[in-house]
């Protein structure tokens, strides 16, 4: 009984890991286009909103800079 429960737990954990870590976009180009599209939809009154490419984690990041002494706030991530 314990073996079956362990196998089911491992299977569920594996499926959740695959679903969570799968990329949203098929290429960096698609992620870049989506990030810049969403950037263009932000109100002009919101200052310092930008997109940046993180090659280590394979994602584009839409962020808002809050000031020089504060870290930027991540608005959305676009994994590829």
Mean pLDDT across the residues is 87
Molecular shape: elongated
Portion of residues in beta strands equals 15-25%
- Give the SSE order as H and E letters: HHEEE
Could you walk me through the main structural features you see in this protein, from its secondary elements to its overall organization?
A hairpin with an 8-residue loop joins strand 2 (59-64) and strand 3 (73-79). This protein has two helices and three strands. The protein is an alpha+beta fold and 80 residues long. It has one domain (24-79). Strands 1-2-3 form a three-stranded antiparallel β-sheet, with helices on one face.
How do the helices and strands line up, and which of them pair or pack?
Elements: H1 2-21, H2 28-40, E1 49-54, E2 59-64, E3 73-79
Antiparallel strand pairs: 1-2, 2-3
Brief synopsis:
With 80 residues, the chain is α+β, with helices and mostly antiparallel strands. The protein contains two helices and three strands, in the order ααβββ.
Please supply descriptive tags for the structure shown above.
80 residues, alpha+beta, three-stranded antiparallel β-sheet, 2 helices, 41% helix, 24% strand
């Amino acid at each position: 009984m314990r073996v079956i429960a362990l196998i089911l737990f491992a299977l569920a954990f594996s499926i959740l890991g695959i679903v969570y870590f799968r990329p949203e976009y098929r290429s960096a180009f698609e992620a870049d286009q989506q990030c810049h599209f969403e950037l263009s939809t932000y109100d002009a009154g919101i200052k310092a909103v930008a997109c940046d490419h993180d090659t280590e984690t394979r994602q584009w990041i839409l962020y808002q800079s809050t000031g020089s002494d504060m870290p930027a706030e991540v608005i959305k991530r676009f994994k590829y």
